[in-house]
Amino acid sequence: MIALAGIESCKTLAEFLANLIPGGVVFGLVEKDTFVWVKSSDSFTLDFIKVGNKLSDDTTTMEAIREKKVLIKNIPRTVYGMRVSMVSIPVIDDNGDAVGAFSIAFPKLHPVAAAFGNFAPILAEMFHEGSFLYMSDLTKIAYAQPSQKFDMPSISVGYELREADIAYRVIHSKQPIIEEIDASKYGDPLSIANYPLYDDENENIVATLGIVTPKKTAVALREMSDNLESSLEGIAAAIEQLSASATEIHSNEGALNTDINEIINISEKINEVSAFIKEIADETKMLGLNAAIEAARAGDAGRGFGVVAEEIRNLSAQSKSTVPKIKELTDTIKRKVDEASRKSNLSLDASQGQAAAVEEVSASIEEITSMSSELSNIAKTL
Amino acid sequence: MSIMQLVVFRLGDEEYGIEIGFAQEIIRIPELITKIPDMPLYVEGLIDIRGKVIPIIDLKKRFGYEKTERSMDSRLLILDFESDLLGIIVDDVSEVIKVEEQAIEKLSAEISSLGGNRIQGIAHIDERLILLLNGSKLKTEVLKN
């Protein structure tokens, strides 16, 4: 406590100290219940500490006077619009009665808020798409720091927090929140992280610190990798189809080869039939010749029979002449079929080559697909 | 103008003819031919036709052809020399033709005798030359050494 006699020394001291205390200070001298002298530092004033202002009974200062005790109290923001630490020292006269008080008010500032101006401009520039840093108290934005590349003009100092705002939700949930917001709200996709800040005793949330980073690159990358993935799925499906048709070509060519071999067998059989015709023709010819001999031996009586014999021989000659024609036809068939078989084998080889190539492509696609999903995973972590 | 009928057959590239009256029948060469020991090479052996035993000779071997292999068309021509039958193996009996006797050119006696009198003439038909065997002498000519 301060003796009445020492008041002048305190005032003198206060005049000097006012602009030396970091963060600022307000000194005030109360007589009974009214400020009679006030000294503020240049950077900090409090409206209610003014010469002539009367204090109500429930103030810290009045309590200190009543109890004749030095009181140090933190005054919440709701009282003066900002958090204030109040020190009230009763002034005691010669009789030991408290006749007033010497009050010292310090702005109570969270260390992060105090340093905001120092770290925020640097930190804001450290993100490659830029960033926007802000601090809120319990109701509104208190500090804002845009970067060269990125700003949020709609969020400026004094902006009243709304229920949907992340800072508001952090204050009420007492949990840090990290959220991604798509482009529909602010024009760009954003990532917003907001942390609650507690006062010295770590009991009450007094502020939040938020950092907003645009996610254009990451989102573009994610979209691209999604596109890539769906394109690859399309390609993979097409490849599968291609592979299926290659297999079908392969089996068709196999069937074609079987058919061709059957045709070869059939033309062999035609040749067998033709050989049989030749045999019959030979037999008929011999029969005709023998008939002619027989007719000649019979002399005149055999003349008619001789004509028949000649007809038989002619018939035989005609039948026999079909044999080389048939042979020629079957040879042609065989040649054509051989050609077809050769071509079919070429197609078979080609389709095998195709199937192998498709398999290779398919393997490459698989590799690319796995790379793409890795890329997608990386994009998701950005 | 008399017409004669010839049975025409081939030996190698040559065509031979024999008067049809000497022919009895044409058959395929039987698989079973009974060999007779110690015979000239051209004697193939004996066969049985409808109960008659017939000696067989290979006419190409007998006529001194170098190539004597047989083909699918090789036939056995059975000749009838009155009471005796003789089978000759030929390369295909091709036809029975009628020729006018004027179309047959006689060989001179000198030439004919060089060939053992086997050929009595040449039937000249279009561009074909058919060697006409002398049927009546063939048996004795062929069977003598």
What does this structure look like?
The complex is a heterodimer of chains A (382) and B (145). In chain A, strand 5 and strand 6 form a beta hairpin. In chain A, helix 7 packs antiparallel against helix 8. In chain A, the strands form 2 sheets. In chain A, strands 1, 2, 3, 4, 5 and 6 form a 6-stranded mixed beta sheet that branches. Chain A folds into 3 domains: 107 residues, PAS domain (Beta-Lactamase); 103 residues, Beta-Lactamase, CATH 3.30.450; 162 residues, Methyl-accepting chemotaxis protein (Helix Hairpins, Orthogonal Bundle), CATH 1.10.287. With 382 residues, chain A is α+β, with helices and mostly antiparallel strands. By secondary structure, chain B is mainly beta. Chain B has one domain: CheA-289, Domain 4 (OB fold (Dihydrolipoamide Acetyltransferase, E2P), Beta Barrel), CATH 2.40.50. The radius of gyration of chain B is 15 Å and the shape is globular. Classes of the chains: A alpha+beta (382), B mainly beta (145). The interface between A and B is medium-sized, with 12 and 16 residues.
